[in-house]
Amino acid sequence: MTLWGELSLDGPRRSVTVEREYPATAAELWAALTEPARLARWIGRYEQTADGFRLAMGGPDADAVVDGLVLACDPERRLLVTWRFSGDGQAEAPTELEAVVRPAGEGRVLLTLTHRRVQAVTASVYGAGWQDVLTHLARELGAEASPQEHDGYLGEAADPAAFDAALDEYRSEEAALVRATMTREGDRSAVSLQRLLDAPVDEVWDALTLPDRVSRWLWPVVEWPDDPVRERRLRVGDVMRLGDENIEGAIQELEVLDLEERAHLRFTWGDAAVSIRLTETGDGTLLSLEQDGVRDIFGAGRLRSAPDFAAGWHQLIDQLTLLLAGLTVPAPDRLWEAAYLVYSAE
Q1: Looking at the structure, do residues 33 and 168 belong to the same domain, yes or no?
Q2: Distance CA 95, CA 185 (A)
Q3: Rounded Cα–Cα distance for residues 54 and 39 (Å)
Q4: pLDDT classification of 291: cutoffs 50, 70, 90
Q5: What angle do CA 71, 28, 133 make, to 5 degrees?
Q6: What is the mean pLDDT of residues 3-28?
Q7: Helix or strand or coil: residue 79?
Q8: What is the CATH number of the domain that holds 308?
Q9: Are 212 and 189 in contact (CB under 8 A)?
Q10: Are residues 187 and 167 both part of a single domain?
Q11: Residue 294 gets which letter from DSSP?
């Protein structure tokens, strides 16, 4: 699969940049980008609102809309809009989308889309999504299209197999941006990871110490210490029992070894320990995770070592990131697989 774009860090979020060249003039491309009737055939049904515009994406009954406002418009050259997607009962944080049109030789034009301040983890979905949407746009500009696309964009991938392949590659590309460090001594592997989270420290601390939050990003809570109704925060000396999602039917007991309110949590992890420190910054909360050396273990049908442990923590912090953003976790196994490709290649 050939990716047309790239992902980059944007504070605690990401920027997604995707390019495609078209056999068209700047005027033809600009018309496809701005005329409501044409927008409906490749990205969504446009309507003007009191506060800007709305794009209804997908079929008539689909719950997928984008609300935005035009911030800058230089005809046939540059369009800058705010972009806030909502659907299936979830709303993403506001972002910013810029389209730049440049000549690319006689009868050809280059479109560069830059989507800024995109939520981490979902950035890979946007990378694959914009790559797919620009394929729909190519068909609107004259490339071969399906009958459904001639009737209007229905929110379906122009090429589902290509979309899936691109999504996996963008996930690995995003994982590489925030990769953990692995250290190996004998048959033990340590993991060190830092991630800037787009949330205040109080919200991150809640996610680390309250049972209803822990079970949504770490592992399912089977038993919470001295609290059958599972409401109170963790304390030093507590032992929580979690369902190990790596081994069917397995239960892990984690004992809290040290705790400093809103700053530090250390707990046992197998025959070692994990330490998580939080530092509030101007951009969010910096999470620093240190897993002590863990002995290679047999799980999921094979011997698991450093790349497995690094990919595991990477996936879990991805899930924490989405929880803090109020979003659901899409295909957790694929998040792990994308990260594992990064670590197994080292």
Answers
A1: yes
A2: 43
A3: 12
A4: very high
A5: 65
A6: 94
A7: strand
A8: 3.30.530.20
A9: no
A10: no
A11: E
Domain that holds residue 195: 181-344
Domain endpoint, select from 176, 193, 217: 176
Query: Two tokens at 187?
Result: 């048959």
Encoded tokens for 117: 């301040």
Instruction: Return the ∠ at Cα 47 (arms to 127 and 50), rounded to 5°.
Output: 110
Q: Are residues 159 and 185 in the same domain?
A: no
In this prediction, residue 117 carries a pLDDT of: 97
107 plus 240 within the same structural domain:
no
Question: CB neighbours (10 Å) of residue 231?
Answer: 10
Tokens in use for 20? 């495609």
CA distances from 278 to 198, 262, 314 (A): 13, 7, 17
Nearest C-alpha neighbor of 243 from the set 218, 268, 226, 208:
218
Residue-wise pLDDT for 336-346, tens only, equals 999 999 999 98
**Cα 8 off chain centre by:** 12
DSSP string spanning 105-144? STT-EEEEEEEEEEPTTTHHHHHHHHHHHHHHHHHHTTS-
Nearest-angstrom CA–CA distance, 136 and 130: 10
Judgement on whether residues 104 and 195 belong to the same structural domain of the protein:
no
Q: Which of 176, 207, 236 is the last residue before a domain boundary?
A: 176
Q: Count structural domains, the chain.
A: 2
142/32 same-domain check: yes
CA dihedral (14, 15, 21, 25) in degrees, to 10, reads 140
Residues 297 and 151 in one domain: no
Instruction: Give the integer Cα–Cα distance in Å for 306 and 304.
Output: 7
Q: With a cut of 70, say whether residue 146 has pLDDT above it.
A: no
Q: What is the mean pLDDT of the chain?
A: 90
Same-domain pairing of 156 and 188? no
